[in-house]
Amino acid sequence: MEYHLETPVKEEDIRKLKAGDIVFLSGTVITARDEAHLKALELHEKGERLPVDFKGKGVYHCGPVMKKVGGEWKVIAAGPTTSARMEIFQDKFIEVFRPAMIIGKGGMGERTAKACEKNGCVYGYFTGGAAVLAADGIKRVKAVYWLEELGMPECLWVYETENFGPMLVTIDAHRENLTEDVKRKVMKNKEKIIEAME
Fold it and tell me: Positive or negative, the Cα torsion across 130, 156, 162, 18?
């Protein structure tokens, strides 16, 4: 199925999605990589307020290339970064901030899948190497936070998007994880091949 969703996405709409569905997202998408995840969680633990509200939004694993033109930020390229790096704290991030969708490339693991099921979130796989396609779905930069502290690739870029995608749901809110399914199939085939060679 193909879905066109608008942020903030309601949990009930996220729970309708199934692994294998295609999603296009309009509204607010916020970039966040390793350092931004860590800083957000640290501020939360200190009881400090964050400059953005992730609830119901898209959180994009991306280190974009940006350029200031006439005093306004423009997106040059915004391809996804490898999501596996965020696996160690993505579950906590989902639990605390309740985003609707995590977006990146390469898939994520069991910790993230559990958090998606419990909190009503999905993981959307965006094709790697499609930085210009991603940039086309970003209509404007609404805000940027922590730029001086974390730098361009690691800070929070808040984008207004229109039909951002396509994204393949590889982890849904029902514990289905296409990436892990493929891994299991590959390992089984590998074992069969090794047995046949002995």
Answer: positive
Look up residue 138 and give its two tokens: 């970003």
Residues annotated catalytic, as ranges: 37
Percent of the chain with pLDDT over 70: 89
156 vs 149: CA distance, rounded Å: 11
Enter the tokens of residue 93.
């991030």
Which pLDDT score is estimated for 186? 46
Q: Which token pair is 146?
A: 């922590």
Interatomic CA distance for residues 72 and 47, integer angstroms: 32
> What's the fold here for domain 2-197?
fumarase (3.20.130)
CA–CA separation, 93 and 54 (whole Å): 10
Q: What would the pLDDT profile of 4-31 be if each residue is shown by its tens digit?
A: 999 999 999 999 999 999 999 999 999 9
Q: What is the pLDDT of residues 58-107, one digit of tens each?
A: 999 999 999 999 989 999 989 999 999 999 999 999 999 999 999 999 99
